Amino acid sequence: GKRKLHRVSLQFEDPILEEAYAKTLTDKLVQGMVYIGLVAVIMYALFLSSARWSPASYQSHTHYKVSMSCRIVDIGLALASFSVAVIMKVHERCRILRDSHVVCITVSFALLAMIGGAFTDHFYMARFLGQPIYNTPTDGWVMLHTNCVISATHVLMSVRWCALWPLEIVGLTLYPIVVLATQGRELFPVHNLLVLAALVVLSTLGKRLAEFRDREAHCRWLEEKVLRASAE
User: To bridge 184 with a disulfide, which of 10, 39, 144, 179 should be the other Cys (CB 3.0-4.6 Å)?
Assistant: First the structure.
């Protein structure tokens, strides 16, 4: 009875058992976020190193302004990624944060990365700046960036599935909001939205199933630990 799970949240009904399980998750999350932050820094550094910085390499000053605005967002995301990696590494050694703060930082960073992705796309950045100078035919970059964040958070981050609900809601609503606000560029953006919705739903179900199995494994580990202690 004590190890019974809540039907929706999957929490253990025993608060002591739930606290112990959450502690193991947080330790894994901290280690994972250090690596995710460093990988993100490398990715944005590669973006910045391949960018054209000279105004002479652009068709007009407006093109240059839009591109530099995207690069500023890249720099901001790179700094955020580095800051998260440093904070998590310091916490790993000195324990400066509560477990809830670690989860909050993780989800906030993922939200920032997802929303920032729309502002690293030249087409949408130009529309946000009131300079519709680009007419690229696809939303591939925005979709790929959103997919990357969703996949990384649901596969690599050791965080409870219900803690990712805000990210999933933003993942489903960000694309249609951006398209409606800027009049978009795809002929059939609803197709992209349907694929994105399928990705989010399947990722959510997969995360929930993975947590359910992890909790079962945690219970089995505790039972084996008790049996070993009794045998000794």
Answer: 179
